[in-house]
Design goal:
Length: about 170
């Protein structure tokens, strides 16, 4: 049963990834990207990485896609279509993608991977949260606060720019 769910999620990721890249409508591409990120979170849940799946859902599926949708809504017209692609550039891009895929497959299958044991307590969510949000030597409270202020300033700036263009 787990294998079937994995194949369904993997097929969903592949299908919506192709649709994201080939879509001519920018807003639809953002929605397709949302489905890719949700299916990726499903794979994390399937692997029993619940914390990573929750981070995937909140940060990427929630935050990044909402940011993309707001950027599209504030800067472009919804019905804006992308220009047609040059056939020669498409063929060259496909050739480079196939060469890149071949190089990756050659590296993966040519290297003898050996597993090493997991460190004890390395994936404890409470320990990760305490170390990230501590004031100690390796704490990241100050960067989190700086990033939150920068994001707030960016949102206020985007709203001001959108209002200025709307009033003109």
């Amino acid at each position: 049963m787990e294998r079937l769910i994995f194949y369904i999620l993997a097929l969903t990721i592949i299908l919506f990834s192709v649709m994201t890249v080939t879509s001519r409508n920018i807003l639809r591409a953002a929605i397709y990207l949302l489905f890719v990120l949700l299916a990726t979170a499903g794979i994390y849940f399937l692997l029993n990485y619940n914390f990573l799946a929750a981070v995937q859902l909140t940060v990427y599926s929630g935050g990044v896609v909402v940011l993309i949708v707001f950027a599209v809504l504030l800067t472009a017209k919804i019905d804006h279509k992308l220009e047609p692609v040059n056939k020669v550039k498409s063929a060259l891009t496909a050739l480079l993608a196939i060469i890149g895929l071949g190089a990756i497959l050659w590296a993966v299958f040519g290297y003898n991977f050996t597993g090493n044991g997991m460190a004890e307590g390395a994936y404890d969510v409470k320990a990760i949260g305490s170390s990230l949000l501590s004031y100690g030597q390796y704490g990241y409270v100050l960067p989190f606060e700086v990033i939150s202020i920068l994001l707030l300033a960016a949102m206020v700036g985007a709203i001001m720019i959108a209002k200025r263009y709307k009033n003109d």
